[in-house]
Every structure is written in C-alpha cells, then in structure tokens.
C-alpha cells in the first residue's frame, strides 16, 4: 500500500495519503477562474482521493467555505501560519464532501508521485499554456 506524505510550506501541517494503489488518485489540472484565484496561479492542480485515505499527522488546517458562483459551496483547507493550500472539496453530488478530498499536488513531498490524468475547464486555459499530451481534456468541469 503506497503512502504519500505531504505538508504545508512551514510544516506546521503534515499529512499522509494511504492509498490502495496509485490508481486510487486522479490528478487533474483545472483552468477555471476559481482555481486560478484559489491557487494564485494560472491553473489548479489537485489529486482526487477517497476521503478516508487522507490522514492529518500534524497540525490542523484552517477552513474557508465559499460559494463558487453556482450556488455550490467549496471548502478549502490551508495553513493559517504560512498560507499553503492543502486540499479542497465541494458539495456537488459527485465530489461530495463525505466521499472525496482534492489534495493540492504541490503540497506532496514527492510532487511527481501522482501525474495528471486530465484537464478541466480547458476553455479558460491561459493562452500561452500548451495542452498536457495524452490525458483527457474537458472544456468545462464535472469534477
Ligand atoms: Zn504552514
Ligand atoms: Zn477549477
């Protein structure tokens, strides 16, 4: 069973992902406006994992809940000391907060461990950013 460790920048928060296999994680880019804002860059990069595979081992993140513009709340967890974004989850049916966590891939200690399988919201891709080859591409989203 692979175990992936991660943390915020200042390591006040540390976590482990205990997956049955790497296939249990679905890493995707998202080019939507909300991800641009939340990540502070031109796309979001998260790994969708079953909720019960995520274990905090140190610290407690701060939670921010906000409507993403469609009447659906998105919850984002981040370090209240250094500000690193750790994970997010929404209320929408398929990414129900009871079932999944979307881990910010840059917070993993091995950022190459879970490469992307697809891209969402390609219609909002930065004009200078090329497509990732050999992954799925969706113009909009259904996480
Ligand atoms: Zn921190
Ligand atoms: Zn997005």
CATH architecture: Beta Complex
Q: How many domains, in number, for the residues?
A: 1
What general form does the structure show? globular
Strand content: 35-45%
Element-by-element helix/strand order: EEEHEEEEEEEE
Enumerate the distinct ligands. Answer: zinc ion
Determine the structural class based on helices, strands and strand pairing: mainly beta
Family: Belongs to the Gfa family.
Keywords: Lyase, Metal-binding, Zinc
Domain CENP-V/GFA: 4-118
GO molecular function: carbon-sulfur lyase activity; metal ion binding
Write a structural description:
The chain has 143 residues and is mostly beta strands. The protein contains one helix and eleven strands; from the N terminus they run E-E-E-H-E-E-E-E-E-E-E-E. The protein has an eight-stranded mixed beta sheet. A three-stranded antiparallel beta sheet has the order 1-2-5, with no helix packed on it. The two termini are 25 Å apart. The site of one zinc ion has 6 residues, from helix 1. Residues 30, 32, 34-35, 44, 121 line the site of one zinc ion.
